[in-house]
Amino acid sequence: MVTIEIQCLDCQGTGIYHGFAEPVGVGVICLECNGKGGIKISYTPFTGRIIRDDIHTVYRSRGNFIPTGIGPIGNSITYQDFLKGKKPK
Q1: 72-78 and 57-61 beta bridge pairing
Q2: What per-residue confidence (pLDDT) applies to 24?
Q3: What is the C-alpha separation between 20 and 23, in angstroms, rounded?
Q4: What would you report as the CA-atom Rg of the chain, rounded to the nearest whole angstrom?
Q5: Per-residue pLDDT, 46
Q6: 40 near 4, Cβ under 8 Å?
Q7: 49 and 82 in contact (C-beta within 8 Å)?
Q8: Taking the CB of residue 33, how many other CB atoms lie within 10 A of it?
């Protein structure tokens, strides 16, 4: 796990947030960074895809709940083919 400090995405590093609810010329202390302008994030560096031993077949996802539903769609491929770079149609 690596922890770094980045510029706050909500206030763009200013420490002051101004959105649609604040009148012209008015800012509020950014809730994300508490006015510091930066936040600490922790992440695990990517070192390669992790292999799953509980998957045998791969489909494309429908992508959302509404309006098309959930679950797999289309043709399937084997997990081994997926690991070789193939994608189902």
Answers
A1: antiparallel
A2: 96
A3: 8
A4: 22
A5: 96
A6: yes
A7: no
A8: 22
> Cα(13)–Cα(30) distance, rounded to whole angstroms?
10
Listed in sequence order, the residues at least 6 apart from 66 whose beta carbon sits closer than 8 Å to its beta carbon are none
- Mean pLDDT in each 10-residue stretch from start to end of the chain (89 residues)? 97 96 96 98 96 95 69 88 94
Q: In sequence order, what are the residues at sequence separation of 6 or more whose Cβ sits closer than 8 angstroms to the Cβ of residue 56?
A: 78, 79
C-alpha distances in angstroms, 11 versus 7, 29, 42, 52, 78? 9, 9, 19, 39, 45
Amino acid at 77: I
pTM: 0.58
Spatial separation of the C-alpha atoms in residues 76 and 53, rounded to whole Å = 17
* Beta strand extents in 1-89 (DSSP E only): 2-7, 16-17, 28-29, 38-43, 57-61, 72-78
Q: How far is it, in rounded angstroms, from Cα 84 to Cα 62?
A: 22
